[in-house]
Amino acid sequence: MTLRVIRHGCCRLALLVVCVAVSTIAGAQADPAYLADMPDVERVRADVQGSDRLDTLARQKAAFEQLSRAVEIGAGSRLVTGLTPAEQRWRDAYRGAADAVRRDAYSGLSNSPPGGLNPFAKSPLQRWNDLTGRYESDAEGRDALLRRYFPDDAYATLAAAIDIDAAERSGGNEFAERYGIATGPVGLLARVLYWLGVAITILAITREVLPKGLSPKDPLKLRTGLFSYRLQWATGRVASYFSRDDRGGVPTTTTFDDLAGTVTHSTGPTQRANVYEMFVLVGDDGRRHVVALVNSGIAIPEGRVATAVWAARKAGAAGDFVLMFDRTAAVTWPVYKELGGKLGVGRAMYLPALLLAAILGAAVTSFAGGASQTLGVLVGVFLGGIGFAALFMFVKTRRVRRFMKQDAPRILSTIEESEAGSAAKPGQAASLS
Q1: Which of 129, 325, 364, 413 could form a disulfide with 307 if both were Cys (CB 3.0 to 4.6 A apart)?
Q2: Is residue 57 part of a domain?
Q3: Same-domain status, 151 and 283
Q4: Cα–Cα distance list, 302 to 239, 277, 328, 334 (Å)
C-alpha cells in the first residue's frame, strides 16, 4: 500500500514539473522588439481620417485589420504554438476595434438601393464594404501605415514577413491574387472562360466593324468582315430543273369515294420544312455544271441562259452559291440563305448584345423604384434577345439589298467582260480559275 502511494506521488510530481517547465519556457519567451512601438487603438482612430464619414470608417477598419494581421504574421510559428501575452493583447485590441468600426458602419449607413439609371449604383453600406476591401488589400496603404508607427528596423522586419506571407498565400499567382479567383482546376477553368468570352466579344465586334461587300479594287472578292471569298461562276442553259418540298409526316389529306359520296379525311397538319431546287447549266460546248439550292425560290424556267455565282475561300475551289443571273430575262436573284449568312450579323454578337440587354434591364428596374435587379436582368435578356434578333434580321436584309443594288451589277459586268474577252458565246460554261 505504501509503495502504491509513493508511485502515484512520483507521477504527480513529474507531471507538475513538466507543466512548470513548459509554462516557464513560454513565459520566458521574449516578445518581438516591434511590439513596443505598436500604436494604441485611440491613437489609430485619431490618426486615420478620410474625406467623409464613410471613407473614415473604411480606412479605420482597414487599418485595424492590417495591424492585427501584422501581429499574426510577425509572430510566425507562434501563431500556431501560442502567441505571447503581449501579442495576444495587441491582436485582440485591434480585432475588437475593427469589429467596433464595422458595427458603427452597419448601424449608421443605409443599405437601400439608390435607384436611378446606373445599374452598378450601390447603397452606402455596399460602397463602404467595397471601399474597406480595397483599403485592406492596398499594399501601398499598408506600407504607409507601418512606416507611420514603426522605426526603420522594426518596419523592415514586419515588411519582410508580410511579403513572404503574401507570396506563400498567392502561390506566385498574380492573376488570382488581383482578381480573387481560386487557383487549381476551378481557377484555370474560370480564367479560360473569362478570356474566351473576351476574345469572342472582341472578334464579334471586329467582324461587324470591318467592311462587308465587294472589294473596291476587285469585283470578284467578297469581304465578310474577318474573311474574304473568291467569287466564281458558271454560265449555261438551264436543263433538268427539279424542285421538291420537304414536308414532315404523311400526306395531309386523303380523298376517296364511299356510299356517302366523296369524302376527304385530314391526316395531319401541313408543315413545310425546306424547298430543294436542282438544275444543270449546260454550255454550248457540252460542259455541265450542277446547281443545288435550298429555300432560294429561284424557279428559273428551263432553256434560259443563266449564270450561277458561288463563293469559295480560294480560286478553283467549291463553295456556296450566292447569286443567280437569268441572262435571258435580265433578272438577278440572291441566294438569300448563303449571302445573308456571309453579310449578316454574326451569331457571336449575341454575347455582347445580351450583356448590354442585362445591364439595361437592371438599370430599368432600379429606376422603377428598387425592384429586383435579378428579375430585371432576366427580363432584359429575354426581351433583349427578341429585340436584337429582330434588329440583326433587319441589318442582314438591308445589307443583302444594298449588295444586290450596288455590287451585283459589278459582278455581272465583270463576268460579261471576261466572257467577251475569252470569246465565249452566251450559253457557254465558263469559270474563273
Answers
A1: 325
A2: yes
A3: no
A4: 5, 13, 11, 19
Q: Which range marks the domain in which residue 48 is found?
A: 31-170
> Do both 274 and 325 map to the same domain?
yes
Grouping H, G, I as helix, E, B as strand and the rest as coil, residue 225 is coil
Q: Which of 170, 195, 221 is the last residue of a domain?
A: 170
Is 343 a domain residue?
A: yes
Between CA 63 and CA 102 the distance in angstroms is 12
Is residue 180 in a domain?
no
Grid coordinates in use for 145?
501605415
Do 149 and 258 belong to one domain?
no
Do residues 236 and 331 both lie within one domain? yes
Q: How many CB atoms lie within 10 A of CB 219?
A: 18
Q: Around 245, how many Cα atoms within 13 Å sit in the side-chain half-sphere?
A: 8
In a domain, 188, yes or no: no
Report the predicted TM-score, pTM, of the whole model to 2 decimal places.
Answer: 0.54
Q: Cα separation of 198 and 176, whole Å?
A: 18
CA distance 411 to 115: 56
Q: How far is CA 423 from CA 285, 426, 428, 433, in A?
A: 13, 10, 10, 16
Q: Tell me which residue of 244, 246, 211 sits closest to 226, measured CA to CA.
A: 211
C-alpha cell, 181: 479567383
Inter-residue contact 104 to 132 (CB < 8 Å): no
Contact assessment for residue 232 and residue 315, using Cβ atoms and an 8 Å cutoff = yes
Q: Which of 170, 197, 228 is the last residue of a domain?
A: 170
How many structural domains compose the chain?
2
What string of pLDDT tens digits covers the 433 residues of the chain?
444 444 444 444 444 444 434 444 444 457 888 888 889 999 999 999 999 988 999 999 999 998 988 888 888 888 878 889 998 999 999 999 999 999 998 888 887 766 655 556 778 888 888 888 889 888 888 888 888 998 888 888 888 887 776 665 555 454 444 444 555 566 677 778 888 888 988 998 998 889 898 999 999 999 998 889 999 999 999 998 888 876 554 444 444 444 444 545 455 555 557 788 889 999 878 889 889 888 888 888 899 999 999 999 888 788 889 999 999 999 998 988 888 889 999 888 988 898 888 888 877 766 655 556 677 788 888 988 899 999 999 999 999 999 999 999 999 999 999 888 765 444 444 443 3
